[in-house]
Structure formats: structure tokens, C-alpha cells
Design goal:
This protein is mostly helical. Helix content is about 85%, strand content about 0%. It is built from 4 helices and no strands.
Amino acid sequence: MSTNIDERARQAAEYIIENNATVRATARKFGVSKSTVHKDISERIEQRYPLLSRQVKAVLERNKAERHIRGGEATRKKYRGE
């Protein structure tokens, strides 16, 4: 496994934790696909940095629990013309 891939995965994990970021926002920030971010978090980080992995998963679970609220807000803004 390449060192720069490991470094990108670690940076992505730290970004998610520091910013409470979603997978989509993290992918945009690092210029990679959502699938790449998901693989980095679920496989690469889990193997090399177990503590970091647990912190990231906690943030992503919170984001998953709140996504229906964000979707509703986006729909409301769309129809209000905001």
C-alpha cells in the first residue's frame, strides 16, 4: 500500500473529525470520489489507526442520523427560492 494513500486516508479522517464533515464534503475537499473516501475510512484507517477509525465512525454515524434533517432543509430552501 502506498504511503501517500495512507497519508491521504489519515488526513481525510482528521478532516472529518475536525469539521464534522460528511463523506461527500470530504471527497470534494480532497478531490477524490465518495467511494475512495469510504474505502479510506472503512478499510485503510481501520487497519492502521483503530482509535482514529472509531472517532471517524462516530462522526459519520451522527451525520447519517441527521441526514434526513439536512435533506428537508434543502428541499424547503429550494421551494422558497433561497
